[in-house]
Amino acid sequence: MSYDTNSPVKSLPQLGWSHFFQQQLDLYEWENTLPCRVAAVHGQHIDVFSNHGQHQLSLPGSWQQLDIIDRPTVGDWLLVEHDTLKPQRLLQRTSLFRRKAAGLEAKQQLIAANIDTLFIVTSCNQDFNPSRLERYLALAYDAEMQPIVVLTKTDLVNDVSPFITEARSLKHDLLVEAVNSLDHHSCEALLTWCGPGQTVALTGSSGVGKSTLINTLCGHSDQATAAIREDDAKGRHTTTARSLHFLPEGGILIDNPGMRELQLADCEDGIANLFEEIEQLARNCKFNDCSHQGEHGCAVSKAVESGSLEPRRLSSYLKLKAEQQRNSETIAERRSREKSFRKMCRTVTSDKRKRQEDH
Which CATH class is domain 97-255? Predict the structure, then answer.
């Protein structure tokens, strides 16, 4: 058992505890266990906060055998024994931010749990990429979090309005805030989502100013920062692991490292929510299995031709739909499909060779 006596002591509501979690405990658990909020994960060791302060826990070996979805991640609520701090069970989540793990296998990577609001941070320079923003938004909507697009480095451009307009065009009710991360007054608009008990997560590419924004919101300079490369506006990683911070307004902020690769898996609902105008058009297509790539009677293709639907928007929709379907397959399903495809290719090649020999 390990306590950090120098860590801030917060009440459960200040840590984000709510009736949603309270109702999951029976009377025995309420009297004999300690609810803890996961602040960081280091393999088998995790840092947590409870209403007694900060603790360092070791997960039993059996927990490593669990499916990734059942293991603790930053933001989770974990019940531990009062005396030994031995982990007992993970509480059901209100939300789960996740992506497909890097690599070829169909595995998931958990990013953070029990988030109320997701700040999707991008800068007003070459980093601004609507298609990349759509990836973050699809994940946010699928996880049932409130996404806010935060445009940073507004002090480096003469006119920020084109960036705001393009960001808002991604969804009719999307909230967009433009800030100078170095100016606390400029960032005050974000404090609406940083009140007592609220949990906010930051995500975005490296170099967009997430660490600077965290320092400004937190009122200190704990997060290291680094300048971007001037030739291509690419950033350097300054955050290497997810971490939890307490905000002066009483909220909780979770930082995430910059993500070079953000692939979708099991995200069909999020894509449908983000591209709702295309989903509505698709209901008027002549065929139920329309691929929206120029078929006769395709209402989506007709909208592109008339100019009411942006071609880039449709291209992004089709790409993300195909990607999430591909990445959602199990390894066995994928291998079976690939095996069938190879068999079909061999059959086609054999038939072609036979026809050539006959002639």
Answer: alpha beta
